[in-house]
Amino acid sequence: MTQNSGGGGVGGVDWDAEAASFDEEPDHGLRDPAVRAAWAERLRAWLPGRPCDVLDLGCGTGSLSLLAAEQGHRVTGVDLSPPMVELARAKLAGRDAVFLVGDAALPPVGEQRFDVVLVRHVLWALPDPGRALRRWWGLLRPGGRLVLVEGVWGAAGIPAEAVSRLAAPLGGRVRVERLSQDSLLWGKDVDDERYAVLVRGD
After folding, report:
1. What angle do CA 30, 11, 189 make, to 5 degrees?
2. What is the 3-state secondary structure (H, E, C) of the chain?
3. Could you tell me the pLDDT band of residue 9, with boundaries at 50, 70 and 90?
4. Is 82 exposed, middle or buried (0-12, 13-18, 19+ CB in 10 A)?
């Protein structure tokens, strides 16, 4: 699922090369109905109940984008990896979704166009996460929200406290939701730090 900031070398990984096998991970492809249902339930809680415009940054192969679209939202996905974007376009063919090749930190979209900016496993890989958060906050309409799914995996990742601290100056209400104990999200038990930081402007 979704996804990482794609592109050659981002986060030390060649996402172009990873694209073909990316969905084999349970929490990437969401092929297991129980894993898929667990992520759908989380998204339903994180996104507005009414149809809205969702920007999925670092969308990867579009698994989270597809769940959002199935819940009635209009989706724009951005990923640095062209192979990831092609897979996302195929996965959401016929739905109200557009996918663009671009940098998640500086997405090729206009300001104040979205109700939600959804970002999974991207912030940790960026050289200036605070600047990225400020940029993403500016893409939201008044009352919009950031949904940031991140974690710490060995030497990689970014702690929830760090993300909360970076998000505090944005002016929204910041809440941390711990995800490590929900094994259905990952298709297995995990003992590392996984979480969502929700920043709401309403």
Report:
1. 40
2. CCCCCCCCCHHHCCHHHHHHHHHHCHHHHCCCHHHHHHHHHHHHHHCCCCCCEEEEECCCCCHHHHHHHHCCCEEEEEECCHHHHHHHHHHCCCCCEEEEECCCCCCCCCCCCEEEEEEECCHHHCCCHHHHHHHHHHCEEEEEEEEEEEEEECCEECCHHHHHHHHHHHCCEEEEEECCCCHHHHCCCCCCEEEEEEEECC
3. very low
4. middle
pTM: 0.89
Which tokens belong to 16?
Answer: 């172009």
pLDDT for residue 165 is more than 70: yes
pLDDT attached to residue 21: 58
What is the Cα 172 distance to its own chain's centre?
A: 19
How far is residue 7 CA from its own chain's centroid? 15
pLDDT at 5: 38
In this prediction, residues 59-88 reach a mean pLDDT of 95
Listed residue (135, 158, 161) closest to 146, CA to CA: 135
CA distances from 71 to 51, 126, 133, 144 (A): 8, 29, 25, 18
pLDDT of amino acid 169? 96
What per-residue confidence (pLDDT) applies to 4? Answer: 40
CA–CA separation, 199 and 13 (whole Å): 28
194 DSSP β-pair partners: 151
